[in-house]
Amino acid sequence: MLWGVEGGQGGGVEFPMVGHSEMRPPAGPQGSYLTAPFDPRFPNTNQTRNCYQNYLDYHRCMKVLTARGRDTKPCLWYYRVFTSLCPLSWVQHWDEQQEKGSFAGKI
């Protein structure tokens, strides 16, 4: 499922939705960025580890907040960062591995 971020000169940017389809981007300037901000934990040019870590953090966040019955909006931050950094083919591969139960990450 896809959802769009409104605004900008090009109309909107579509992001593939992972997990809960009821999540929507927040309104206002915080929801209008298209690239991940600088993360001092990953200062190097190669952002592979940053991509993977934010993918894991998103799924951990969703798991914990859903289990507690809380709002999952805070998880949207991780989703936006990993979709900005990670190639779509990697995300699709990791999602397939999760479905099969063979994903190596600890979620």
Automatic annotation (TrEMBL):
InterPro entries: COX6B-like, CX6/COA6-like_sf, Cyt_c_oxidase_su6B
Gene Ontology cellular-component terms listed: mitochondrion; respiratory chain complex IV
Keyword Mitochondrion on entry: yes
The entry's keywords: Disulfide bond, Mitochondrion
Domain of life: Eukaryota
SUPFAM superfamilies assigned to the protein according to its UniProt record, in alphabetical order: Cytochrome c oxidase subunit h
Predominant location: mitochondrion
Cell compartments where the protein resides: Mitochondrion
Gene3D superfamilies: Cytochrome c oxidase, subunit VIb (1.10.10.140)
Region (Disordered), start-end ranges: 14-39
PANTHER family: CYTOCHROME C OXIDASE SUBUNIT 6B
Listed name of the protein: Cytochrome c oxidase subunit 6B1
Gene label: COX6B2
